[in-house]
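User: Is it possible to get a 3D structure for a protein together with its bound compound? The compound here is 6-O-phosphono-beta-D-fructofuranose. I've pasted both below.
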Amino acid sequence: MGLKRVGILTGGGDCSGLNAVIRAVTRSATIEYDAEVVGIEDGFEGLIFDRHRKLGIEETKEILTRGGTILGATNKGHPFEYREFDKDGQVTKRDYSKQTIENFKKLKLDCLFVVGGDGTLQIANRLYEMGLPLIGIPKTIDNDLEGTDYTFGYQTAVQVACDALDRLHTTGESHQRVMILEVMGRDAGWIGLEAGIAGRAHVILIPEIPYDMGKVLGKIRARIERGDPFSIIVVAEGAKETGKEAITSEGASKRLQGVAQLGGVGYHVAKKISEQIDLEVRCTVLGHTQRGGTPLAFDRILGTRLGTEAVQAASEGKTGNMVALQGREIVLVPLKSLAGIVRQVPADSPLIRTAESIGVCLGR
Ligand code: F6P
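Assistant: Yes, that's possible. Here is the predicted structure of the complex:
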């Protein structure tokens, strides 16, 4: 089938490479199908409140190397459970799905490309099951999506963390300090594990392996004894001590009231180490630097491939799927098969074996 008019939105948290997808979808739909392209603003919020604009080759020509998303993104614009605040700050969740579907119909799209992570793609599946022609395109720095080997944004985030570790090495070694780097990743340890291996960390703590503080202290002491009185530790934000929960705090802004956000485990580990070992300990929280900035070539290429393959799938009427990288191929995975599954680092991951076999302590 031909394509006359397609749309694209970027939902959830941003990451590097989103603009590569927007550009690829726009160019491919325009060049191959002479289709019109509509950019929906701020994720699903743009569908709920009818905010969109035209996209063409001109509008997307300078964006490949730019971080963020030219369309805006939000992880709070849930069409079925939109959070609204009254003047006393009380939150009510409102169902805007009917309005969302009406606005969608007004746009007369053959297909809407929904670029997002787990939450966004679950919403996409619900709307698809209610009759909207959608195709998902996976993104997240966490690399924790089921059905795809890699998500774009991830390699860039790992590189940012690796660069930070290289810098922490030189200053940590000069001052004989224990340097802790807290990285993102939510409940998955991919960023921590890969950045830690690439950045020569001595200890890597990830959510999948509850850590024993005694083992962490043992590793630092062993290094001191053999004449290396500094250590580099990567802590994934979702890491938990054996028998304890991950550390969270309530979001700082009004819109995040009642929403628990991961973060703080790096300082927690720092405190525990300083109580037991007579070395200075410092903690760096890398935060959103992992999500910003120019995408690496890998993420630009993956984003571009996913964008063009999504347009191809739309032209064949294959809605209700997500385009995904499996091995070297881009394949289609049914949106319904994702079902909120978080792809954590498996216990038998070769990466875990690799880290331990070169002497990295994983806190066990
Ligand atoms: O899912 C991507 C991610 O960056 C996580 O690694 C992190 O926990 C979370 O989003 C932060 O979300 P926010 O930008 O809403 O603080």
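Residues 157-290+346-357 form a domain with the Rossmann fold fold (CATH 3.40.50.460). The chain has ten helices and 15 strands.
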